[in-house]
Amino acid sequence: MNFSEEILKWYQVNKRSLPWRGSTDPYKIWLSEVILQQTRVVQGIPYYLKFVETYPKVDDLARASEAEVLKLWQGLGYYSRARNLHAAAKMVSEQYGGVFPETYGGLLGLKGVGDYTASAIASICFNVPEPVVDGNVYRVLARYFGVDLAINSTEGVKYFKKLAREVMDVGQIRDYNQGIMEFGAIQCVPKSPDCEVCPLNESCVALQMKRVGDLPLKLKKTKVRSRYFNYIVFVSEDGRTVLEQRKGKGIWENLWQFPLIESPEKLSPSHFQRYFEGMNHKVDPVSIDLFNPEAIVHKLSHQHLYTSFWVVRTKELPKNGISFEEADTYPVPVLIADFLRSFKKSYF
């Protein structure tokens, strides 16, 4: 059985209709690939359509402010992708005259573009014979060839890239790369794939060895860290509040949030009041109420955030305030956006 031929035949029959499929515009392919990193297709499509509508060309995206880009990205998570997207758009616009590099190496030089994304753009847009290796491709190759190497190990990354290059169809690289990714996305799925209808089932090592559920192998994740966030939601007599921009590296860089107290554990009302007084906001609170008695658990890849929102009513604010309607225009973490929706329904 010829592996690449079977992938191509399957793809022609089963490929999904996606907004960017069929396009060789590197801007659209790049945009779709960045959005779909760590995001399911069904969730990513509306964002892709919003970005293409708002910024039809890479130069349009380059001219936007970071705040505008982050606001449009709001809800997708992993905001470093949005910042890198904006930075790369500026590079293409300013250094390349709005034209994407046509080589794998040139694309790899763009901010936030790694091996996979450079390979995808080069092959789909410019027919460069460069294999793609994403999570779907790792799974297909690991199962079909029975590879026991961890896909997130240095040795595994090198091996799978080499294997992907050996089995790719150089003459039809555009369709082949899209085909093997699609095959992993809808046929060779992570859990309970329908191996009976798989065109590769006769020669799939994992299926013959009854190891479909075991492969691909992956090194254990780093330990998940618990953090305790206490947001201070100031509410003045005229219905205004305070947002601050989150600075420094780490989660939600440059997004906006309510003033934050991070504590070593969940705070009781009396403990929170002591923390609050220690911050010396120079305001006399009329009342302090915990909006959510049960902490909201926001799960990220390596940390779980146990979040409480403390509503502090005051006559005056500690700094210049904004209306809650205006707060909706700021790029904020989805955690804050969800709170704002609930709070306005409850308090206004």
Automatic annotation (TrEMBL):
Gene3D superfamilies with a match to the protein in the record: Helix-hairpin-Helix base-excision DNA repair enzymes (C-terminal), Hypothetical protein, domain 2, Nucleoside Triphosphate Pyrophosphohydrolase
Record-linked Pfam families: EndIII_4Fe-2S (PF10576), HhH-GPD (PF00730), NUDIX_4 (PF14815)
CDD domains: ENDO3c (cd00056), NUDIX_DNA_Glycosylase_C-MutY (cd03431)
Reactions it catalyzes: Hydrolyzes free adenine bases from 7,8-dihydro-8-oxoguanine:adenine mismatched double-stranded DNA, leaving an apurinic site
EC number per UniProt: 3.2.2.31
Cofactor: [4Fe-4S] cluster
Record keywords, A-Z: 4Fe-4S, DNA damage, DNA repair, Glycosidase, Hydrolase, Iron, Iron-sulfur, Metal-binding
GO MF annotation list: 4 iron, 4 sulfur cluster binding; 8-oxo-7,8-dihydroguanine DNA N-glycosylase activity; adenine/guanine mispair binding; metal ion binding; oxidized purine DNA binding; purine-specific mismatch base pair DNA N-glycosylase activity
Gene Ontology biological process terms from the UniProt entry: base-excision repair; mismatch repair
Ranges where the HhH-GPD domain occurs: 35-186
NADP keyword on record: no
Cofactor comment: Binds 1 [4Fe-4S] cluster.
Record function comment: Adenine glycosylase active on G-A mispairs. MutY also corrects error-prone DNA synthesis past GO lesions which are due to the oxidatively damaged form of guanine: 7,8-dihydro-8-oxoguanine (8-oxo-dGTP).
NCBIfam families: mutY (TIGR01084)
Similarity comment text for this entry: Belongs to the Nth/MutY family.
Official protein name in the record: Adenine DNA glycosylase
